[in-house]
Amino acid sequence: MTTSPAQVPAPNDFPGGRPRVVIIGSGFGGLFAARALRKAPVDVTLIGKTAQHLFQPLLYQVATGILSEGEIAPATREILRGQKNARVILGEVTEIDVAARTVSSEILGRKTVHPYDELIVAAGAGQSYFGNDQFAEFAPGMKSIDDALELRGRIFGAFELAEIAHDQAEIDRLLTFVVVGAGPTGVEMAGQIAELARRTLRRDFRNINPTGARVILLDAAPAVLPSFGKKLGDRARRQLNEIGVDVQLGAMVTGVDADGLEVKDTDGTVRRIQAATKIWAAGVQASELGRMLGEQTGAEVDRAGRISVEPDLTLPEHPEIHVVGDMMALSKLPGVAQVAIQGGRYAAEAIQRRVTGKKPQDPFHYSDKGSMATISRFSAVADIGPFKFSGFIAWVLWLVVHLMYIVGFKSRVTTVLHWMVSFLGRGRSERVATQQQVYGRLALEQLGPNWEVSKTGGPKNTDPGDEDITQRESA
Ligand SMILES: Cc1cc2nc3c(=O)[nH]c(=O)nc-3n(C[C@H](O)[C@H](O)[C@H](O)COP(=O)(O)OP(=O)(O)OC[C@H]3O[C@@H](n4cnc5c(N)ncnc54)[C@H](O)[C@@H]3O)c2cc1C
């Protein structure tokens, strides 16, 4: 279905007061857009499915016990505390009505409707299992704090179970870790599991030898870190091999179960790997909201769920809807933090100009600041413009850049301390894993979606149908 083109209200055309900007998502795109609007004469409502701003690039360090979840996920409310024109709403956006210009969000059965004059959609992407969603039960992805904590429990738990196992085949299965996907996330994850086994846990067990743990990095593609080019990809592969990671390329995962994986090699051979811990770091699928917007506006949505945007990051004939970050498709831009940050700032500037009557900006131009991936402590690869680094220099660069983008002074200080513990010493300060973290996701899935609402009492004395907590009419 398509809608008739919406009119963008003129600067003095907002009957309810200042223009209302609704932002969906508290990730890189959403948060940086909200902050860029701090001086704009608008009221900003940022709606997030989680109460935090998550720094996804360091999730693997939470999963492997280096950092705590708080360090990479400060509360969005706290970050925007001093920004008087912004408020934060916790809730999952379930509906966008383009014609009525409203966004509905829900949390534990409570529904809220938010009218907007300008909408920034930055809901990011989730894991894609390429049509094999059943793999998720045994091979969690790496997209959220929940994922990272579940993986932490599974990784450390596998060593514990191996310590009390008697059968050598079972010990081998428990001490085999398979990471699927040789992009930056997979490479970093595999490197850190190898370091955990060989450095941190080396002396912690009596019956098993953790240094003998097998870490396998699998990918159907023929290269490691393909987006970094052949030279850096080959170096990364060599560095992974040096720390004991078994890199298997041209290997497509065709089955995953509790005990291991089935893999098909390029020559057609099908083989099995017995492994208790499987981690899925391959493929992304943009938020469902992209498809919802596509159906209402006629904008094209690609196979990965990304919605095509105009050169100014708005939807065709809907200049009031801006889509940024991992959800947008524009000139094959990659799904990386800088695209989301720059897109969020650009959308904010477009809104600011519109409401203050200034002329529009030039089309969005992405300034590529390069890519980096760590392999292990003191070792990384970095691809910055014409420069390609690897080894210690790349690692120092990686350290500095990541520290710069961690939000909040407190988080930066504690992150540096934890890095010193893990990289200068052998320790990991965050080894706590609870049963809830390991089993919670699967248990909730079995209980079904209505369980959470019923156990938390559901909405009280509200009509969940169409509450508008802004108490203002839509412009
Ligand atoms: C493990 C991992 C490692 C990465 N490493 C790097 C790296 O080293 N360098 C790099 O540049 N990039 C990296 N990336 C990619 C980078 O994190 C993303 O490109 C970036 O986060 C995209 O920003 P975004 O704002 O589009 O989405 P996100 O940052 O994912 O934010 C989306 C937000 O929307 C919220 N949301 C989703 N659906 C809804 C809904 N229905 N209602 C309300 N809120 C919703 C989410 O809770 C989240 O707050 C990595 C990603 C992952 C997963």
TrEMBL record:
It catalyses: a quinone + NADH + H(+) = a quinol + NAD(+); a menaquinone + NADH + H(+) = a menaquinol + NAD(+). The keyword Nucleus does not apply. It is a single-pass membrane protein. Residues 450-475 are annotated as: Disordered. Coiled coil: none annotated. Its EC number is 1.6.5.9. The keyword DNA-binding does not apply. Residues 20-344 form the FAD/NAD(P)-binding domain. One of its GO terms (cellular component) is plasma membrane. The chain crosses the membrane at residues 389-409. Its cofactor is FAD. It is found in: Cell inner membrane. It is an enzyme of class 1 (oxidoreductase). Keywords: Cell inner membrane, Cell membrane, FAD, Flavoprotein, Membrane, NAD, Oxidoreductase, Transmembrane, Transmembrane helix. It holds the Pfam family Pyr_redox_2. GO terms for molecular function: NADH dehydrogenase (quinone) (non-electrogenic) activity. Belongs to the NADH dehydrogenase family. This is NADH:ubiquinone reductase (non-electrogenic). The lineage of its organism: Bacteria, Bacillati, Actinomycetota, Actinomycetes, Geodermatophilales.
